[in-house]
Amino acid sequence: MDAIIIVLIILVVLVFIALIKTIQVIPQASAAIVERFGRYTRTLNAGLNIVVPFIDTVRNRVDLREQVVPFPPQPVITQDNLVVNIDTVIYYQVTDARAATYEVASYIQAIEQLTVTTLRNIIGGMDLERTLTSREEINAALRGVLDEATGKWGIRVNRVELKAIEPPTSIQDSMEKQMRADRDKRAAILQAEGVRQSQILTAEGEKQSAILRAEGESRSAALRAEGEAQAIRTVFESIHAGDPDQKLLSYQYLQMLPKIAEGDANKLWIVPSEIGDALKGLGGALDGFRPGGGDSGGKPQAPGTPATPGITKSPREQPPLDS
To answer: pLDDT at residue 95 above 80?
Structure first.
């Protein structure tokens, strides 16, 4: 009786194990390879799958999602014999689980080695400057070669990125010095352009200021001349309107003589010929105001004698009368 119970327990365990091996649940975005007696039979897709227990074997589970694999820096020699270290990042996806399992032993290692060799071929035809400035070109060329080579492995390379390109330390120092020199050069050029523009603007401003100042002076002179002309015209009209006689003109003429002789440096001045007529007119005017029409002594003056009593001239100060 005990033996029968033991056998039943063993059978139940075997049935349970068989059921477990029969039912295979594959997650989404995954695939599994089934082998029967060591030979590929089929590929299990996502979902519930039934296999023959103890005959079919699930050999490999493959992730069908896009994968990202960074590769360590690889030394690469450029066309101008400089060694640069390049870090790469590969974005790939398994499209055929059977090929990825049977066509290559380790597709990750194969992609890494293929990336290194292809990168050396591409960089070997470029100099350092072009290598540093042609990342898109390098990415496109590398992706084309990798996608073509990995197609038979059931791998699709979606994108290749150069994460870093590190030239030697000496080259980095030289590049920094060159960049600093270029910045200093551009700064000096910009400063010179600024000074030049400032001088041009200053010269233009001075030119405009001089033009405006000259125009102002010209207008001021014109207005001043017009004012003087108007004043002369007004005085002339006033004189003619007042109808002055010879006596008033003579008196005004004599009032201007002291102004002519003003100044310490005026040692010699010329008396105009009209001074005699002015003196005669002024003498006649004074005789008209005296009692009896004579001099202070009541005697009439001789004809031809100037009617200017009290006026004496020293030999030094009296200039000759210009007839």
So the answer is: yes
d(CA 283, CA 280): 5
Q: Do residues 70 and 89 make contact, with C-beta atoms less than 8 angstroms apart?
A: yes
Long-range contact pairs involving 4-10 (C-beta distance under 8 Å, separation at least 24): none
User: Hey, how many other C-beta atoms are within 10 angstroms of the C-beta on 310?
Assistant: 5
Residues 321, 206: Cα–Cα separation, whole Å: 56
CA distance 290 to 6: 183
d(CA 163, CA 236): 101
Neighbours of 268 (CB within 10 A): 6
Spatial distance between the Cα atoms of 102 and 154, rounded to a whole number of angstroms: 10
Q: How many CB atoms lie within 10 A of CB 100?
A: 20
Q: What percent of the chain has pLDDT over 90?
A: 12
Q: Which amino acid, one-letter code, is at 203?
A: A
CA distance 57 to 103: 19
Coil, strand or helix: which one is 207?
helix
Sheet with 67-77, strands from edge to edge, namely 67-77, 83-94, 155-166
Task: Give the model confidence (pLDDT) of 229-286 as tens digits.
Answer: 888 878 777 777 766 666 666 666 666 667 666 656 556 655 555 556 655 655 555 5
Q: Contact 97/64 with Cβ under 8 angstroms?
A: yes
Residue 151 reports pLDDT greater than 70: yes
Global pTM reads 0.52
Q: 47 - beta bridge partners?
A: 26
**Three-state DSSP class for residue 153:** helix
Q: What is the dihedral of CA 164, 170, 172, 173, to 10 degrees?
A: 160
**From the centroid of its chain, how far is CA 92?**
44
Tokens 């492995």 found at: 153
Q: Terminal CA-to-CA distance of the chain, rounded, Å?
A: 184
SS3 300: coil
